[in-house]
Every structure is written in structure tokens, then in C-alpha cells.
Amino acid sequence: MTVINEVKIKIESVIENLDASGFPEGDAERSISECEGFLRYCDGEAVITYSESGEGGSVSSEIKYRDKEASVKRTGAIESELYFKEGVTHSSLYSIPPYKFDASVTTRKIRASLTECGGTLDLFYNMKIGGAEKSARMKIWIQTISRKP
After folding, report:
1. Does position 54 have pLDDT exceeding 80, yes or no?
2. Those residues with Cβ within 8 angstroms of residue 129's Cβ, 6 or more apart along the chain or in another chain
3. Contact yes or no for 142/118 (Cβ under 8 A)
4. Least C-beta-crowded within 10 Å: which of 14, 42, 105, 146?
5. How far apart are CA 67 and CA 4, in angstroms?
6. Is the confidence at residue 148, as pLDDT, over 70?
7. pLDDT, tens digit, for every residue of 118-142?
8. For residue 32, what are the contacts with CB-CB under 8 A and spacing of at least 6?
9. φ, ψ for residue 140 (rounded to 5)?
């Protein structure tokens, strides 16, 4: 049975540059965003969809999780599709018009606790974008919204 709920979404990301030895160096880039969207849950697969507006325009995002694998697809002012599976490197194109960058993601760890009511998805990964290597963590909290009639 498919369950669809309106949800609050909070995304915290931390990105650090890596030195030649692969260790974090310099200041970490931190960002937190909050929005509302939808969680579709069916047979262990969670699909979170939401839209955001920023300086570059509107971005629609879809986050999927199933069986220790995740993907994050963004369309609109930012175009990207990142795939996460522990120990696997995935290459793609990351586009912020007018620029396009080759991007690769190597997933170190995925932690998930998701149900039809929400939960958390925590992604730890290394990213190489435009030649720069970075260590990143994206933590996503999903909470069902109860609307009163």
C-alpha cells in the first residue's frame, strides 16, 4: 500500500575541502534549509519531493531511498543527479547555468531510519566537483505535518 504524507523537511549539509592526503582542511561550509514537501512510502521505498526558490530560480528535488541506496535528483535552476551506495563511486554532471561541472560521489556511509511517517536519512560521502575534492555530510529530517481541519 502506498502512503503519501505532507511533510516538513530539514536538510543540513557540511562540506569540507580535502588536502592532498585526503584530510579535511580549512573552514567547513555549513548550510541548513527547511521546506515543506511530500513523502511517498511504499514497500520500504521512501520518495521525498519538494521545491525551493533561490537567487538562481526555482529548483525541484526528489530524494529516493531503498535498501541502503539513495539518490538525489534536482531540476530547474540547478541540474544534478547524485547516486549513493556505500563503497561505490558514481559520476554525473552538475549544472548551475551557465556552468557545468563533472562530479563524482563516493559514498562512505548511509544511515537511514524512514517510515511512512518520516524519519532521518544521513549520507556521508566524498565528492569531486570541478577538480576539487571535498568531504560531505547531508542529514535530512522528515516529519509528517498534521493539518487541522
Report:
1. no
2. 94, 101, 102, 103, 104
3. yes
4. 146
5. 19
6. no
7. 999 999 999 998 778 889 999 999 9
8. 10, 11, 12, 13
9. -120, 125
Q: What is the DSSP string of the chain?
A: --EEEEEEEEEEEEEEEE-TTS-EEEEEEEEEEEEEEEEEEETTEEEEEEEEEETTEEEEEEEEEETTEEEEEEEESSBEEEEEETT-EEEEEEEETTEEEEEEEEEEEEEEEEETTEEEEEEEEEEEETTEEEEEEEEEEEEE-----
Upstream peptide bond of 97 is cis (omega within 30 degrees of 0): no
Q: Is the pTM of this model over 0.85?
A: yes
Q: Name the grid cell of 54.
A: 533561490
